[in-house]
Amino acid sequence: MQAYCLKCRDRRDITDAEQVTLKNGRPATRGTCSVCGANVYRIGKAS
After folding, report:
1. Structural domain boundaries of the chain?
2. 15-45 tens-digit pLDDT
3. Which of 12, 13, 16, 46 could make an SS bond with 5 (beta carbons 3.0 to 4.6 A apart)?
4. CA distance 17 to 25
C-alpha cells in the first residue's frame, strides 16, 4: 500500500501499516515512510 509522504513529496510504500479510526469516525491506515521514516496516513478503508 502506498501513501503520499509530505517530507519526500512523493508516493511511498507504507511500512508498519496499521488500521486506525480518525476522530470523526473515518477509517485510515497509519504507518511510516519506507524511505525517510516520517509518519504517513492514508484515509479510507484498506483494500
Report:
1. 2-43
2. 999 999 999 999 999 999 999 999 999 999 8
3. 12
4. 18
Counted residue by residue, the chain has a size of 47
Cell of residue 23, nine digits = 476522530
Q: How far is it, in rounded angstroms, from Cα 41 to Cα 44?
A: 10
What distance lies between CA 22 and its chain's CA centroid?
12
Is 39 in contact with 30 (CB distance < 8 Å)?
A: yes
Report d(CA 43, CA 24) in Å as an integer: 12
H or E element that contains 42: strand 39-43
